[in-house]
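Request: Not sure, any thoughts?
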Amino acid sequence: MRQPVSINGILKVRRLTIIPLLSAGGAVIFVFESMIPQPLPFAKLGLSNIAPLIALYIFGLPEALAVGWLRIIIGGLFSGSLFSPAFILGFSGSGAAVLTMYAGLLLGRERLSPVGVSVLGAAGHNIAQVITAGLLFVGHHALWNILPFMLLFAAFTGAFVGIIAWEILERMKLID
């Protein structure tokens, strides 16, 4: 006799399908975005950050970290930047972005929309990149002079990413 499918089984299958889809989608966006010329080293839209932001709202912190890091690894494989300085900066930035977004989600759930959470994540991403670059590659305090410009740009790009993620989450009927 066949056992009925449990809710936990359905949720496990959902998780096992959505996480790889988000990771792959984020990686594809990451690769395409890396082909766009950047006028400044920090002037990247960060559209692939939509994937971990959505994962954070659907599942939570561990899954969002997995999606964020998997998209960087897969994107690094396809763009030829795996284990390069750009990869290391992206990996550290992605982890910090997800952790910052998670903190914003926990502390400001009633006050912050996905746009606000995304802006926090973009800021966390840039701060982590400056710290990582300073510790591993540059080693000079003058690197901190670029951070205000990075954060200003992050406010706009984070808001743009947050608007797109919010629209996707609303269409999926996951938020009001």
